[in-house]
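Students often ask why we bother predicting the structure of a whole assembly rather than each chain alone. The short answer is interfaces. A chain on its own may look different once its partners are present, and contacts between molecules only exist in the joint model. In this exercise we take two input lines together and write out one structure for the complete complex. Read the inputs first and try to guess which parts will touch.
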Amino acid sequence: MAFDLDDTLFNATWLSNKARLGGLQKMIKLGLNVNIKDAFNILEKIVEKFGSNYSKHFDELLNYLQVNGQIKIDQYQIPKYIAAGVWGYHSVKEKYLKPFKDVITTLKKLKNEGLITAIFSDGLDIKQWEKILRLQIHSYLDYVFISEKLEYKKPDSKFFEFCLNKIGIDPSECIYIGDRLDKDILPAYKMEMIPILIHRKGKYDPNINKNENYLNIINQIPKSGYYEIYKLTEVIKIIKKLNN
Amino acid sequence: MAFDLDDTLFNATWLSNKARLGGLQKMIKLGLNVNIKDAFNILEKIVEKFGSNYSKHFDELLNYLQVNGQIKIDQYQIPKYIAAGVWGYHSVKEKYLKPFKDVITTLKKLKNEGLITAIFSDGLDIKQWEKILRLQIHSYLDYVFISEKLEYKKPDSKFFEFCLNKIGIDPSECIYIGDRLDKDILPAYKMEMIPILIHRKGKYDPNINKNENYLNIINQIPKSGYYEIYKLTEVIKIIKKLNN
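Now the answer. The structure tokens for the assembled complex follow.
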């Protein structure tokens, strides 16, 4: 039984948005004269452009606001506002990083049933591992694979093959749960794993994300090609069904 | 009245050591099979070699232990231990980062007296600013200057000149307090500022640091060329004396 991490085992979309707002609040409290909603929207576009693992989102935000004449700050005061943003961002992340309520219960049950558990995740390996440790789920996991240092990542089937080889199981023996049609469900289906789509209200939840190209992916998978759940506890039933 | 930051306004040496031990403890708890004292000593040497602002001390530590055959860890498990180290390190830093007990009181008094207050610091500007914000001393400071983005840093007199020019005062009008003979007291003396050496038991406190070259710096400054204090509150008396 393998899991995606972000927006599958914890509320990644919600947490990032809350953390970004936390950063902006600290900046505004310190005197940055911007409307928080406007700044949040600009920040979202910056994250989209530079990727979520880029480390200078707040630098880019201030630069944008400066260039567009929305703020006027002495160059040597800029680091103060960036530091406030970083501080606010991390405070929120640390305080609110928690697994979804159904995660620990389910992982415990899976371990009691004697199943092998694993995480297959993209992202920066140290960053992903820090999340796993802070979420306190590592003791329930037999394997964790992060694609950063490999030559391939999701949705490349080679990444999934690498993970399955390391565990020593066939794709057909592996249930794989994720929240994304493109990077989780489609590749798992193509590889003949047993894919489960979990709805977590993250930004790639097909109930939330209304991008047509994204939603069209579902047409490449027959309805019988994957399971669909709203709570992780439902996997126990699916396993029982599969075992019969 | 200008201040150095690390080991002048907060316990930087003590905190870094505690944070490094915190990181090592988390790594060991996760299964890293090393003696904490040995690992700490190796880590100290790594920090010395790569500098305190290098972001991969724990990576280097594991690499060293691996190369020297002291541990044997699967390559893909390495990020787990690094993440544990980083987590432990930051948890301690965030929990124990506090100004010395005499700092807020003194800053308040200085502001009440109508004095201009400033920090002149080396280091990474965002990192230094984050410390200042977390220490909650920024509202008592009129100016903060970090040398990172400038072409000069301590002990270069140009850095001090830059700060004094920005404030608009002469060196002789500026009391400057720091813990280091080499980067604080000697340049402040040469520039004809009013230097105060504060003893904080940090790694550059002349009562702690027994490096001969370091201690010899004191011979370049006459005893009458600087003040020496053990508590920051003593500056109030010095100011009164100077005003008479």
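Check your guess against this: The CA atoms of residues 43 and 49 of chain B lie 10 Å apart.
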